[in-house]
């Protein structure tokens, strides 16, 4: 139940952040939807990312084509990793899916330095 509450909190935070990043073409809601299938792997409940996770990461990568898009996606991912808790596998998802998203998945990244 606590994890479900955490996921609900992430979705709510993502919706709030989406309002702040309206100038970017990629919304926080889109980022959240794209990576939602990845939560099981990110939190260590699955041994590898699912096909739907990798599909979402690929989709996000193709949509985040500008610096503003990547910075917006970074802010959403940073917020998500900071609020959900133990997401130790999150940073390895792009590599496991064979995708270079150009955005580190970490609560410690400075999104303003993303090109």
From TrEMBL:
Q: Which residues form the signal peptide?
A: 1-24
Q: What keyword terms does UniProt attach to this protein? A: Lipid-binding, Signal, Transport
The question of whether Transmembrane is a record keyword is answered with no
Q: Name one Pfam family in it.
A: Tryp_alpha_amyl
Superkingdom field: Eukaryota
Per its record, what are the GO molecular function terms? lipid binding
The record's listing under SMART domains reads: AAI
- Gene Ontology annotations of biological process type: lipid transport
Bifunctional inhibitor/plant lipid transfer protein/seed storage helical domain location is 28-111
Q: Does the keyword Protein biosynthesis apply?
A: no
Function per UniProt? Plant non-specific lipid-transfer proteins transfer phospholipids as well as galactolipids across membranes. May play a role in wax or cutin deposition in the cell walls of expanding epidermal cells and certain secretory tissues.
Membership in a protein family: Belongs to the plant LTP family.
- Protein name (Swiss-Prot/TrEMBL): Non-specific lipid-transfer protein
Organism (species): Panicum hallii
**What lineage does the source organism belong to?**
Eukaryota, Viridiplantae, Streptophyta, Embryophyta, Tracheophyta
């Amino acid at each position: 139940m606590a994890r479900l509450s955490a996921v609900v909190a992430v979705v709510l935070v993502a919706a709030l952040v989406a309002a702040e990043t309206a100038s970017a073409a990629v919304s926080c809601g889109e980022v959240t939807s794209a990576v939602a299938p990845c939560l099981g792997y990110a939190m260590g409940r699955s041994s590898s990312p699912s096909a739907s996770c990798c599909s979402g990461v690929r989709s996000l990568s193709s949509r985040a084509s500008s610096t503003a898009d990547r910075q917006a996606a970074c802010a959403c991912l940073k917020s998500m990793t900071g609020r959900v808790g133990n997401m130790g596998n999150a940073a390895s998802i792009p590599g496991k899916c064979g995708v270079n998203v150009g955005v580190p998945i970490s609560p410690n990244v400075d999104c303003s330095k993303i090109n």
